[in-house]
Write a structure and sequence with these properties.
CATH superfamily of the largest domain: RNA-binding S4 domain
Largest sheet: 5 strands, antiparallel
Shape: elongated
Strand order of the largest sheet: 2-1-3-4-5
Helix content: 25-40%
Strand content: 15-25%
Number of strands: 5
CATH class of the largest domain: Alpha Beta
Radius of gyration: 19 Å
Amino acid sequence: MRIDKYLWCVRLQKTRSKATKFIEAGNVKINGEEIKKASKEIKIDQNISIRFQPIWRTWEVLDIPKSRVGAKLVPGLIREITLEEDLAVLEEVQRQNRENRLKGMVGRPTKKNRRDLNDFWGD
């Protein structure tokens, strides 16, 4: 099965087109080898690594589905083998992001904020 279809079938990506873009951006590895083509075939007992900032999460392929499966059936198809230390790092980053959001630190200014900044800087 193609890797883009597999990521979609086991619900690691929402759509096949998003899975394809994700793969072409270099965010997926099979058995440690970075792939750039969504047409790469995936087989049972291979490891899939996916980039989740700031770590690589890894799953072992247990079975290949015929089509997209329900969320309850996914554990029979893949098993996560990511190291606990990496998951702890990911959890810490997510916690910090959540705290920053609560403090009002946002990335992109609203239209009003932008106008206020322009008034302040005299633009």
